[in-house]
Amino acid sequence: MISEIVKILKDANIDEPQAKAKIILRELANLSAEDIFLGKEIKNKAEVLDFAEKLAKTGAPLQHLLGYWYFMGEKFIVTPDTLIPREETEFLVKCALDKAGKIKKETVQILDIGTGSGCIACMIAKNAPQTEVLGVDISLNALQVALENVQKLDLIKKVVFRKSDIFSALREGEKFDIIVSNPPYISEDDYNNLDKVVKDFEPKSALLAGESGLEFYKKIIRGAKKYLNKGGYLIFECGHNQADEICKLFEKHNFTLSDIICDMAGIKRVVCAN
Hints:
There is one protein chain. By secondary structure, this protein is of the alpha/beta class. The chain has two domains: 2-59; 79-273, Rossmann fold. The protein has twelve helices and nine strands. The chain has helices spanning 2-11, 17-29, 33-38, 45-58, 62-66, 90-102, 119-127, 140-152, 188-192, 196-201, 215-224, 243-252, and strands at residues 68-71, 74-77, 108-113, 131-137, 159-163, 176-181, 228-237, 257-262, 268-273.
């Protein structure tokens, strides 16, 4: 069966056909890697092949066709209005959890800028019981997805959302112990060279960040001090070769660098300052 799916995807020039075929069998036929290896019979073969044909025909992200994807062990609803959760973003969440654990307060207030599907906000709240998270996003459609994810994970008392262009909808005197963000960070040149499956199907507004790719970092760093409690942390996910430039922005605005965290590929993926 897997060979049939791989052929369908290969014939349509879909990237990583073998890996995607295994995901299709896992998600639609509930087969383990061992089941696939042993060629276990599939009861819903027509459904599985229809899905593979749809993927081949549209070229859309597998996650969009499924309607969900996994992040830190939880299943999140995803749509074309939100970025698909990516493994490297776990480093951002883990950094926020580490800092939240060091803040000696009954309730640690966290702001997630550009919350998208809500995966960052949800996993911080789920893994740090002392936190309350406000997620903001300029897209109402993304916020609707985020709200569905919060409800599904039963975090409605710990995570709330607000439509906001970065800080625009924050209230006077509203303060946070930690601000986290995985903002748009793709430069115009890099955007033009993105994989077709990303450029054609994921929201441009969640990817593109001006000529340099640093526009949102600049805006957030400039405005963050007004909304951070004394000693509070500002934590970013960043793109390839951006960490050093962000550190310079921290220094320019009198933040003290706390951490630079590399991902599994050795890329400086998360920067933290206070």
